[in-house]
Amino acid sequence: MRVLVTGGAGYIGSVVAAQLVDVGHEVTVLDDLSTGHEDAVPEGARFVRGDIREPGAALDGVEAVLHFAARSLVGESVEQPGRYWAHNLGGTLALLDAMRAKDVRRIVFSSTAATYGEPERSPIVEDAPTRPTNPYGASKLAVDTALTAFAGMYGLGAVSLRYFNVAGAYGRFRERHAVETHLIPNVLKVALGERPSVSVFGTDYPTPDGTCVRDYIHVADLARAHLLALEACAPGSHQIFNLGNGTGFSVKEVIEVCREVTGHEIPAIVGDRRPGDPAVLVASSDKIQRELGWKPEHTAMRGIVGDAWAALSGK
Question: What is the pTM of this model?
Answer without folding.
Answer: 0.95
